[in-house]
Write a structure and sequence with these properties.
Elements: E1 34-40, H1 58-66, E2 68-74, H2 79-88, H3 108-124, E3 131-137, E4 150-152, E5 161-163, H4 166-172, H5 185-188, E6 189-195, E7 205-207, E8 211-212, H6 215-224, E9 231-232, E10 235-236, H7 246-249, E11 259-263, E12 266-271, E13 274-278, E14 286-289, H8 305-321
């Protein structure tokens, strides 16, 4: 993630606007919001100002102050699976995307500036108050390219590519462990800002319930009154696997059994305050109490073997159900 050159233009700003339109087929008296979904590439949990960064992100800070900040929102740990989950509402394995198909980069400051342009455009058209803006990241900070990172081309020009490497990625993911690709919190925890003046009254509020990128599709379906298709090109498709976050925009709760992850052998399951996670397909399971140890410092696997057995059974049942590669190899 390029984030130290404050006047740098974005290399590839992944601004995904799923819809900025009023849904079809609604009752004439039923008002629904416009929706803008913004997915940022390789942005760590603490990469923007309102989540603790030193980087100037005044537009995002203003959205957070006027909306909600989710503190336990998750991605899949890698860009392509996260995009698949976002666009389908399914775990990425169910959508046929387990690894990569292109390149739970862009400059943060320039990204914030571009979002400011979007906000100004919505305000000038009188659409801002009736627009739900959701911003999240596809994975945590990227530690690829070694401790020192690397640069391709002149890093002061817009046509260069710069990989920050492990030395900076650990700061992007502060205070969490690990990075992009892993299923520890540093890889899968992302900011989620939800801003909707006409629909969110708890300005500057926090939401601490665990949520996931698969929930975005269910949220959009509820808010727009849309129908999720049951088939595509004559083939049946699975219903969305997430739950709507709309109750959290007010004072409600969401009901869910568990959340699951797998990417290149790394795996995790979270149910309530318990999280089971491993590194690699043959790694030992680690167990953490997320109420007391969100930074995953105290492995309780040896003292809570019954929980390890119970949660690993849940994960294996999910892996079978969703055609997941259990050991980082194609599932046969």
């Amino acid at each position: 993630m390029l984030h130290h050159l404050s006047d740098f233009r974005p290399l590839k700003l992944l601004l995904l606007l799923l819809c900025i339109c009023t849904a079809r087929g609604l009752d004439a008296n039923e008002k629904r919001p416009h929706i803008a979904v913004i997915l940022v590439d390789d942005m760590g949990f603490s990469d923007i100002g309102c989540y603790g960064s030193e980087i100037a992100t005044p537009n995002l800070d203003a959205l957070a102050a006027g909306g909600l900040r989710f503190t336990q929102f998750y991605n899949t740990g890698r860009c392509c699976p996260t995009r698949a989950a976002l666009l389908t509402g399914l775990y990425s394995h169910q959508a046929g995307i387990e690894h990569m198909n292109g390149d739970y980069a862009a400059c943060v400051h320039a990204m914030d500036r571009s979002i400011g342009t979007l906000i100004n455009g919505l305000q000038s058209r009188g659409l801002f108050d009736d627009t739900l803006i959701l911003l999240m990241s596809d994975n945590g900070g990227c530690a690829e390219s070694g401790p020192k990172g690397r640069s391709i081309g002149d890093p002061t020009t817009a046509d260069s590519t710069w990989f920050c490497g492990q030395s900076w990625a650990w700061m992007q993911d502060t205070p969490f462990r690990k990075f992009k690709h892993f299923n520890h919190e540093g890889g899968i925890a992302t900011p989620l800002i939800a801003h909707w003046p006409a629909g969110i009254t708890d300005k500057g509020g926090f939401r601490r319930e665990p949520a996931h990128v698969i929930d975005i599709m269910a949220t959009i379906i509820e808010l727009t009154g849309s129908d999720y298709p049951q088939q595509a090109n004559g083939h049946p498709i699975l219903p969305p696997g997430g739950v709507s976050l709309v109750p959290l925009f007010g004072s409600g709760n969401i009901d869910r059994d568990a959340l699951y992850w797998e990417h290149e052998g790394n795996a995790a399951v979270r149910q309530g305050h318990w999280k089971l996670v491993r590194i690699g397909g043959k790694g030992a399971w680690e167990l953490y109490d997320m109420r007391m140890d969100r930074t995953e410092q105290h492995d309780l696997a040896k003292t809570q073997p019954a929980e390890v057995k119970r949660l690993s059974s849940l994960w294996n049942a999910w892996a079978d159900r969703c055609h997941v590669a259990k050991n980082g190899l194609p599932n046969q």
